[in-house]
Amino acid sequence: MRNLSSRARLTAALALPLSVGLLAACGSQPVDQAASSTTTASATTRSASVTPGPATPSTSPSTSPSSAAAPSETPSLEEAEGATPLVAPTTSTSSTSSATPQDSTSSTSSPSTTSPSASPTTQPDADDHDTSADGSSAVLKTGSSGPDVRAVQQRLTDLGYWGGAPDGSFGGGTRQSVLALQKAAGISRTGKVDAATRRALDRGVVPRSRTGASKAIEIDLDRQILLAVEGGRVKAVINASSGNGETFVVKNKETGKETKYRAHTPRGSYSVYAEDDKLHESTLELGSMWRPKYFDGAIAVHGSGSVPAYPASHGCVRVSNSAMNWLWDSWGLPIGTPVKVY
Predict the structure, then answer these.
(1) Domains of the chain
(2) 274 burial class (0-12, 13-18, 19+ CB within 10 angstroms)?
(3) CA-to-CA distance for 189 and 122, rounded, in angstroms?
(4) CA-to-CA distance for 29 and 40, rounded, in angstroms?
(5) pTM for this prediction
(6) Is 132 helix (H, G, I), strand (E, B) or coil?
(7) In DSSP terms, which residues pair with 289 in a beta bridge?
(8) Residue 198 half-sphere exposure, CB side, CA atoms within 13 Å?
(9) Rounded CA separation 49/221 (Å)
């Protein structure tokens, strides 16, 4: 069930000042404007602390939402976030029209218009055998199944790492939750459950909220995770991918004009001010965005078929399509919800 009716969302979007200067691409900045860009609030870049112990959320997001249908997805350029309109985004007055995509299990997909540089923590482990480095237990990865997988899924769910309902099958959702844990713990971002990941599970590593808000979204750019905060506590930790900071040239599909942009996700304090409850098609040759929630000009949190372990977007904050459905349909992310980017 949607938190706001289509009429309410449309009213909220139309009430925005039309003078808001939106960029032509998702979160991207024309390079001649990047130098003068400022955020609405300053935020100190520092490593966020984690809370050891079994900090199980009171209500864990353990099930996938039964959202209206969404478009099918395969990791490709078309699934990267697209350009937002040259006018303020408006909400859809119709229900979602196509089938919900299955999230990609690949960690390497990224827009062909950029070449993200991988951070040291994104490199896969050298040991890719069926046992962990100390030989104590099996390394679980995409395709694994059985009671051990289900136990790991349940532990991730109890800690608040969103990946869908535990089912004993290691798929794309489980990989997303494992990546989120590895990012929060500061260990190698392999997407596999190895010895280091099991230790992080045993310690109960959970990021702390920096806002302590009654309800808010927090985006940690250093660790590439999104936190859904409720009642001052972290309710869900979601794997995310933000702007990679690189420049790229893209053509407007309507005018044919080419513009150089910088893939930048700004830090600061914002709030959700517009949304689009459908697949938003780009005005530039960048692709599309699934159910975007805009919080700063053209920058949005949105679903994508490619959410790797490193910054890879054109400036928006990507989460998996299923995680975006959960934010819309189960947790609720209405217009006005605070968004803190640090």
Answers:
(1) 6-100+132-341 (2.40.440.10)
(2) buried
(3) 5
(4) 16
(5) 0.68
(6) coil
(7) 280
(8) 17
(9) 14
Spatial separation of the C-alpha atoms in residues 182 and 317, rounded to whole Å: 18
Is pLDDT larger for residue 53 or for residue 337? 337
Among residues 208, 198, 195, 199, which one has the least CA distance to residue 234?
Answer: 208
Q: CA-CA-CA-CA torsion for 141, 147, 151, 156, nearest 10 degrees?
A: 30
pLDDT in tens, 144-178: 999 999 999 999 999 999 999 999 999 999 999 99
- Whether 110 shows a pLDDT value over 50: the answer reads no
Q: By C-alpha distance, which of 79, 64, 229, 241 is closest to 163?
A: 64
* Alpha carbons 327 and 329: distance in angstroms, whole number: 6
- Spatial CB neighbours of 22, under 8 Å, sequence gap ≥ 6: 84, 85, 86, 87, 88, 89, 297, 298
Token pair for 272: 């959700």
> From CA 194, how far away is CA 206, in angstroms rounded?
18
The closest alpha carbon to 309, from 130, 203, 181, belongs to: 181
Average pLDDT, the chain: 74
Q: What is the mean pLDDT of residues 87-104?
A: 45
Report, as residue numbers or ranges, the catalytic residues.
Answer: 302, 316
**What is the rounded distance in angstroms from the CA atom of residue 31 to the CA atom of residue 158?**
44
- What would the pLDDT profile of 195-238 be if each residue is shown by its tens digit? 999 999 999 999 999 999 999 999 999 999 999 999 999 999 99
> Could you tell me the two tokens for 88?
């303020």
Phi, psi dihedral angles at 29 (to 5 degrees): -120, 130
Residue 172's identity, in one-letter code, is G
Identify the CA nearest to 64 among candidates 147, 173, 155, 151: 173
The whole-number pLDDT of residue 240 equals 99
What's the rounded Cα separation, in Å, for the pair 331 and 156?
18
Tell me which range, 50-64, 104-118, 226-240, 278-292, is most confidently predicted by mean pLDDT. 226-240
